[in-house]
Amino acid sequence: MWIFTIKRLLQGIPVLFAVIALTFFIMHSVPGGPFDRDKKLPPEIIANIEAKYHLDQPVWRQFVLYVGQVVRGDLGPSYKYIGRDVADIIQDTFPVSAVLGLCALAVSLGIGIPAGIFSAWKYNSGWDRGVIFLATLGISLPNFVLGSVLVLVLSHYLHLLPPALWEGPRHVVMPAFALGAGFAGYVARLTRNSLLEVLSADYIRTARAKGLGEGAVLLKHALKNSISPVVSVMGPLAAGLVTGSFVIEFIFSVPGMGNFFITAVSNRDYPLIMGVTLVYAVLIVLANIIVDLIYMKLDPRVRA
Questions:
Q1: C-beta pairs of 198-206 under 8 Å, 24+ apart in sequence
Q2: How does pLDDT run across 102-132, given as a tens digit for each residue?
Q3: Quick check: helix, strand or coil at residue 105?
Q4: Can you name the CATH fold of 91-257?
Q5: Which residue pairs, CB below 8 angstroms and at least 24 apart, start in 290-295?
Q6: What does the alpha-carbon distance between residue 299 and residue 228 come to, in Å, rounded to a whole number?
Q7: How is the chain split into domains, by residue range?
């Protein structure tokens, strides 16, 4: 397993390099620059600023310099948050995004897996159709629409939860649910379909013939062999939660990396854009490696 983990980590290095290269060159191909929105400055000052940040050099040269900085662990200074390094901003905002992402993942799995099990148990009944309808609605409804509805209903009308900011556990509920509800629907559908496929297997019929109750058949025999597809999509699921957090953090004024990323894009803050993108890419690579390790534990037939 250690050899497999090391191999996957080494395979992730070209992926991270490709992410850095694509993001860097696409970002620099867009017309304009990071200081175009500032008040009109004399050409001499603009030239000095561009020379300070190496913006006066060819793009390929800037890329080489940036990769060298990243290898040394230096993500560079922010263009818009004067006096702050990108690493400092990420260090301050990453814990917030991590808590939000983990809570959203808990919502996705905590709602999706039990709903899928219940739907498979009540197969072809009204309960089953109701779960499928809610799961499809959750998948189809964009998280920013759900977030806006939650703010309107739970905050504006019912005054149950705070509408924004990040000042305590009550502030986590709405953004975590808005971010994780859609993926909960996807997990519910996947769990249901996988369970129904396993429930038609011969060993399940044998277990029922021995007199086991339906609950024992579902939880002790069928669930263990049907959970593998859910585990295998947890990597893409984590990626979806990461990318979805951009909008959710902006809507609920959550001081996480996603909020800073949107601000960095609008301000053309190149180092901050690159830093946040790199951190998210590393998280996605690590999440997929962890999922592969869990999958190997669940299914001994899978080997590195």
A1: 198/222, 198/225, 198/226, 199/120, 201/225
A2: 899 999 999 999 999 899 888 889 999 999 9
A3: helix
A4: MetI-like fold (1.10.3720)
A5: 291/231, 291/232, 291/234, 291/235, 292/4, 292/8, 292/235, 293/1, 293/4, 293/5, 294/231, 294/234, 295/228, 295/231, 295/232
A6: 8
A7: 91-257
